[in-house]
Amino acid sequence: MFGIDDAIAAGLKVLDKFIPDPAEKAKAESELRSTLLAWDQGQMAVNAAEAANASVFTSGWRPSIGWICSAALGYQYVVTPLLMWGAQIVGHPLPVPPRLDDSLWELMFGMLGMGGLRTFEKIKGVTK
């Protein structure tokens, strides 16, 4: 994963090439860290504002991805097979319902992986 520490390390490599004076380099490093921290805090403020919004369309956009994925998986792997099975039992020709893409599993595993990373962060005490 690429994180803020990696960004700082990359910036410091650039500083090493262009600023030979140790005092100037320390000042530039401090400014770089302050700038990156300000960007990070700004994004955290945006996230908090989104989460606090009363509109589900603003505060719920992240959960909505989970809802849509769950609904799509339920449709493709529960509802559609049951409809087809029921149509076979009654002997009624049912038009084949549309199938969704099989890449839904990739989306679900990605979301589960992100949830696992969040749990790992909480266990390690990185987040509250």
Number of helices: 5
- Largest sheet report: none
- Counting helices, strands and paired strands, the structural category is mainly alpha
| Count of discrete structural domains | 2
Helix content: over 70%
Nearest-angstrom radius of gyration? 25 Å
Number of strands: 0
Q: How much beta, percentage-wise? A: under 5%
Mean pLDDT: 76
Secondary-structure element pattern, one letter each? HHHHH
- Low-pLDDT runs of 5+ residues are none
Distance between the termini: 21 Å
Topology (SSEs and partners):
Elements: H1 4-18, H2 22-52, H3 56-59, H4 61-90, H5 104-124
Helix pairs in contact: 1-2, 4-5
What does this structure look like?
This protein is an all-alpha fold and 128 residues long. The protein contains 5 helices and no strands. It folds into 2 domains: 1-52, no CATH class; 57-128, no CATH class. Helices cover 79% and strands 0% of the residues. Helix 1 (4-18) runs antiparallel to helix 2 and helix 4 (61-90) crosses helix 5. The two termini are 21 Å apart. The mean pLDDT is 76.
